[in-house]
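dumping this here before i forget
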Amino acid sequence: MIVPRMFPMNSAAAVVALALSAVLFCRPGTAQQTKLPFGTGEKLRYAVRWRLVPAGEAELFLEKEGTSQNRWKVSAKANSVGYVSNIYKVEDEYQSTFRNTTLCSSEIRKVINEGERHRLVSLLFDPRRKLALLNDRAATGNAPPRQAQSSIPDCVHDIISALYYVRTRPLAVGQSFEIPVNDGSRTIPIRLEVQAKEEIKTEIGTFPATRVEPGVFSGNLFKGKGRIFVWFSDDASHLPLQMRAQIGIGTITATLSSVERQDGTP
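structure:
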C-alpha cells in the first residue's frame, strides 16, 4: 500500500496501513517552534476500527538516530487484529529518518506484509543530486528489484516524517497549503485544508482539536476515491488524535489509545 498504487479496497484489514499513512501533510520548511512538541522516547499507539469493528493497531516510536543529534528516527508498525486479520492479515513496519532542524526526510524503509503481498522497500532522498532513489523487491525469491529515481525539491517529506513536521506548525482554520511528498514514484504536491475546531474523545481523554483534510486521493497518493480527515490536539503537544478515512469499503477510524514519553509521563 505504501508505494503509490490502487489501495486494496476489497479487504477490510488493509485499513490499518491506510490509517497510519493518512495523517500526514503540511507546509515544508524549517520547524519554527523553539521547543518541539515531541521528544525522544515518545510512543503513540492507535486503535483502528472499521464500521465499529476492531480492525487493527498502529504504533509510532520516536528516537534520535544512534548517537547522532542531527537526525530523528521513527519506527512505525501497523497490524490487523481479530476478524479482519482472518480475512486479510497486515503486518507492516516502517522506519523513517529525517533531519533534526528542517524535518525533511532522508530515507524511509518499509517491510510490507499485506495478505499475499510481501515486499521490502527503501526510498533514499539525495538532496545533493535532488533525487529520490527507490528499491522495491520481493521479500523472498530471487526476482530482480524494481529500481527507479525521481526528482525532488530541496526539502521533501515521506509519509511518516510529514506527521512530525505538521506537529510543529500552527494550524489556522481557513488556511490551505501545498507540500511536496514523495512515496516512491514521483514528487506530488499535496494540498492540506485546515477546516474546523472540534472536540475529539480518545481513550486518554477529550481534547480540543483542529481538523485537517489532506488531498491524497484521486491520483495523488491513492488512485481510488475517498476522503481522509485528521485531528491534531490544540495543546502544546499537537498530538495526532484521530484519523478517519471514508472510502469504498466504509469508514475507517484510528484513534489515539496511549501516549508514552521517556520521562514516564502519560
